Amino acid sequence: MRIIFALVVLAFAYIKYTISTTKETNPYAGEVQRVALTPEQEVQMGLQAVNQMAAQHGGLHPDQVAQDFVDKVGAKLVTHTNSILEPGAKPIGYPFEFHVLRDEEAVNAFALPGGLVFITAALLKKFQSEDQLAGVLGHEVGHVLAKHSNQQMAKGGLFAGVGQAVAVLVGGDGGMGGHTTGSMANKVLSSKFARDDETESDTIGAELMKQAGYDARQLIEVMKILQESSGGGGGPDFLSTHPFRRAGSIT
Ligand SMILES: [Zn+2]
């Protein structure tokens, strides 16, 4: 009886997932993916979150020279997004923006859906070359182009359903134990996809670097910088979410 109920929960989650999301081939990553939002909605969502995200890192950095430099490198990369389009695919034309955050402590970079890319002053001051900055910005541009946030949002509903089904199977009648098991299943599934996303962003970032004339081998140096920075502890930073797993194999 419990198995039947779990299967019913799973079936409903899957039906909801297929109805509320769109299946498409990503024009840049070539991956067939389910997404929850249109590119216009992604841009809207990014703009809604921008102030809050910036505030978490002390707001935007007042150093206009640093900001101009980051703008220049970011622009050089995104000029080449059309050259990595899948054959026959139409460009999306995300309105990319690059922002330096005032935070001098947290070594971090991240992207919001729709094209907003952020880098902290703490990470920026560690770079020894423009190529290294291009490596991090290219990786973040990769997340945007491959629509990773959008994809995670679409999967979120499905994962919750799978979690509930597992909870029904293992945890009896929805007690605390079952709830925890469900969340754990959810976490395991999410993190597996997240690792694939990092690899995909590394690949897109490295390709944009090459097209823009940057040395993609500098990603190895970026990885060293990130590893050294994470040694001191101090909470989640770029390395924990951006392991650059393939950096060692980029040539
Ligand atoms: Zn990443």
In short:
The protein is mostly helical.
What does this structure look like?
By secondary structure, the chain is mainly alpha-helical. The chain has one domain. Helices cover 59% and strands 9% of the residues. The chain contains 9 helices and 5 strands. The strands form 2 sheets. It has a 3-stranded mixed sheet with strand order 3-5-4. Zinc ion binds next to helix 5 and helix 7.
What is the strand content? 5-15%
**How far is the N terminus from the C terminus?**
55 Å
Helix content, binned percent: 55-70%
Mean pLDDT over all positions = 84
Report strand order across the widest sheet.
Answer: 3-5-4
List low-confidence stretches. Answer: 233-237, 243-251
Radius of gyration, Cα only, in angstroms? 20 Å
